[in-house]
D-alanine aminotransferase
Amino acid sequence: STYLLNDRFVKDDEISISIEDRGYYFGDGVYEVIRVYGGTLFTAEEHIARLYESAAKIRMQLPYGEEEMKHKIEQLVRDNGIDEGHVYVQATRGAAPRVHQFPGEDIVPVITGYTKAYPATASQHEPVTLKSVEDIRWMRCDIKSLNLLANVMAKQEAYEEGHYEALLHRSGTVTEGSSSNMFGVKDGVIHTHPVSNFILNGITRRVVMECCTELDQPVIEEPMALEDVYNMDEFFMTSTTNGIVPVSAIDGKQIGDGRPGPVTEALMAAFDRKLP
Ligand code: PDD
């Protein structure tokens, strides 16, 4: 395969990353995952804009702009012949001897990217189950940071017990998933955490919100209490990699009849209509 390394396209055996990269030492960097449907990037501008926003929030200036990044990512998809799959791109603060403070101006960020091919499930995902896990992350979850230790630990805890995703909550207030946003439906109204420093402002979440507007589907952007999610009529999660995923049970308690409900079904159909 071909990889992106800064402003170049390189083969596997040509990649060399410094042991002193701040990504290794500190997880000092940001990333994005962008879905490819039928050879076309989905919501690429939004993802690239968020990458540059995340970089700005950690006071990191990328060596080239959003337009050039888009062209590079498109070329990476073409070079690897990706029809269905995704692109991963990350930027670290660069390679420098390990001190916590930023390196000097002469040290430039290191950008890497790869593609991954997999079948298009779009939003046709089978229902999954969740396990609630305490959200022990920092207070800047709006930044798509490479620091994913708390996310990794939460996901593993859910996975080991046979669940697809962790439902994160801060002392009983639901925030999001380990790598997804969470939505409940009660009496025809969608509930989801508002955009804040406690969640990632998911691009799939934004597309779902657009679908809600188009469908005249009411949404309340207020945090859900964990104790209330068990009594929701429907529940679903969203992410770039999986689109909309219906949830059949949380902590072993079945949601609705365990099948995707009417609101989830309508959103999955509306979401599919937006795909390239
Ligand atoms: N994760 N919340 C978190 C913490 C995430 O890491 C992600 C995405 C989302 C969903 O955002 P989006 O719809 O923009 O993908 C929410 C990516 C897919 C990952 O880490 O693989």
Q: What stands out?
A: Helices lie at 22-26, 44-57, 66-79, 149-160, 203-214, 226-229, 262-274. The first strand starts at residue 2 and ends at 5.
